[in-house]
Amino acid sequence: MAPLNCLYVVVAFVLSSNILIITSLSSETLPPSTEHSTEIYQVSRPLTTYEKYLRNCANKLKPNYAEEIFYSVFIGNQTIGKPCCFNLVTDMGLYCHVDITKYMVKLPAFKKNESLILNRSAMIFCECMDV
Known about the structure:
The protein is mainly alpha-helical.
């Protein structure tokens, strides 16, 4: 039962990073050209099936709850209220939470804290299950 609870926490972490995933999935930056320019170009590309799945998962959270979960999991400086926990567990669910978290920790900004973030994510989901 304990490993399953930890998995739930990981899922919560992933969902809280809704904004980062949507931003990172929707565009990519082109490499600099040989010309001297200060402009940054972004090219939209179609989302993969997996990226669409992650976006749908992230959209299951209310925006203010997604922010709460993000700061709790990735930054570690916020607690999650009961309504947010309810939204995480019942609307998003374990699989979405885990998949989003796993995707997010592979991003350069979070890679160095991967184990800490995954642990926080699992703990948060477990705590939300008890609410």
